[in-house]
Amino acid sequence: MALDVVDLRSFYAQPLGMVARRFVSRAIRARWGNVSGDRMVGLGYPTPYLGVFRDEAERTLAFMPAHQGVMYWPTRGPSLAALVEAGELPLPDASIDRVLCVHLIEMSADPAEVLREVWRALSAGGRLLAVVPNRAGLWARIDSTPFGQGRPYSKSQIIHLLRETWFTPVGWSEALYLPPVPRGLLLRSAVAWERVGASLGLPFAGVHIVEATKQVYRPAPVRRARLMPALEPALGPAAAGARVATGEMRRDPG
Predict the structure, then answer these.
(1) What keywords are annotated for this sequence in UniProt (predicted)?
(2) Which of 30, 129, 161, 178 has the lowest CB atom count within 10 Å?
(3) Which of residues 252 and 115 earns the better pLDDT score?
């Protein structure tokens, strides 16, 4: 079952959650270095990663799915968070420039429906950044963290899902090479784990971080050709000739 908002907030308040937030935030920021003037929405449980963009983006909103619950965000000032149905976003068509999905795709009963709704709300050339648990990683195999919940994805699976929902993947990175064990020694060596894993391109990172753009002209669905039986002409040249030969065609009396 998907974690609720209380469980997610509790995880990010713990030392292991703080480390995860640090490294995932670094990877997100590396992909989106400048969002000045953009309209941004975070979907799922994005609040640990949205704060850095608030002073740059034109507007920043946090949408949390109904099955998870919602929390007040930010802690000061007017709330920018709302409870929504992920498959029916309260946004006009092409009204958002960037969407950040965290703790969403792997938790969704129908991730394709959610991504098609994101496609609808994104402007032409808009960008999606999805943080998804890695199927081959250690974090997906231990259910004591949010990254161990739901359905993890391999790289080929997430690429296929994005293309199926009219997105073009344009960038890829990974994070969380540290084992998801909340022990002091491991947490203190987290930087070394991350540096070695990234430099060697090891396959067991905890999360995929994939960036994709909206295809403005999505491909039309292919329809199977319908085979029709060949019909012989009723009054074709051959048929007329045969009737003359048998005397069935006579001249009008003149």
Answers:
(1) Methyltransferase, Transferase
(2) 30
(3) 115
- Is 145 within 8 Å of 16 (Cβ atoms)? yes
Domain count, the chain: 1
Instruction: Over range 138-148, report the average pLDDT.
Output: 94
Q: 59-71: per-residue pLDDT in tens? A: 999 999 999 999 9
Say what the pLDDT of residue 242 is.
Answer: 45
Indicate whether 50 belongs to any domain.
yes
Contact predicate 211/129, CB 8 Å: yes
Return the H-helix or E-strand segment holding 84: strand 81-84
**How far is Cα 64 from Cα 202, in angstroms, rounded to an integer?**
32
Which range of residues forms the domain containing residue 85?
5-214
| Residues β-bridged to residue 213 | 127, 168
Q: Helix, strand, or coil here: 169? A: strand
Residue 234 belongs to a domain:
no
- Considering only CA atoms, which of 102, 105, 52, 51 is closest in space to residue 80? 51
CA separation, residue 143 to residues 34, 138, 184, 235 (Å): 34, 10, 20, 75
Whether residue 220 lies inside any domain: the answer is no
Give a three-class secondary structure readout of 94-137.
CCEEEEEEECCHHHCCCHHHHHHHHHHHEEEEEEEEEEEEECCC
Whole-prediction pTM value?
0.84
The CATH number covering residue 167 comes to 3.40.50.150
Asked whether residue 227 is assigned to any structural domain, the reply reads no
User: 175: part of which helix (H) or strand (E)?
Assistant: strand 167-175
Residue in the structure block whose two tokens are 């050339």? 125
Question: Rounded to whole angstroms, how far apart are CA atoms 207 and 134?
Answer: 5
